[in-house]
TrEMBL record:
Protein name from the UniProt record: DNA-directed RNA polymerase subunit omega
Keywords for the protein's UniProt record, in alphabetical order: DNA-directed RNA polymerase, Nucleotidyltransferase, Transcription, Transferase
Species name: Tepidibacter formicigenes DSM 15518
Transmembrane segments: none
PANTHER family per record: DNA-DIRECTED RNA POLYMERASE SUBUNIT OMEGA (PTHR34476:SF1)
Gene3D superfamilies given in the database record: 3.90.940.10
Range of residues in the leader sequence: none
Gene name of this polypeptide: rpoZ
Length: 88
């Protein structure tokens, strides 16, 4: 049997879709150079990320609608006071 099993992982993250998202995002972070949080003999990023979930080293929380809305907001640039007319 493979460790960690899907049943073990689903006790850590609420459903398999969120589990896939969490593991894939963490695997991408590992590929991009983040340090692994567990000591296992595996070198594959997905395996490392899966073990990190199983050992509660990483968690997953869905963003609220308000958090999503605020994340996309940036400070608006000041508008120019002058109106220039471009002639062709």
């Amino acid at each position: 049997m493979l460790y960690p099993s899907i049943n073990d992982l689903l006790t850590k993250i609420d459903n398999r879709y969120n589990l896939v998202i969490a593991v894939s995002k963490r695997a991408r972070m590992l590929i991009d150079g983040d340090e692994k949080l567990v000591n296992i003999g595996e070198n594959k990023p997905v395996d490392i990320a899966t073990h990190e979930v199983a050992e509660d080293k990483i968690t997953y929380r869905a963003m609220t609608a308000e958090e999503i809305e605020n994340e996309g907001k940036t400070e608006e640039e000041p508008k120019s006071e002058t109106n220039e007319k471009i002639e062709e």
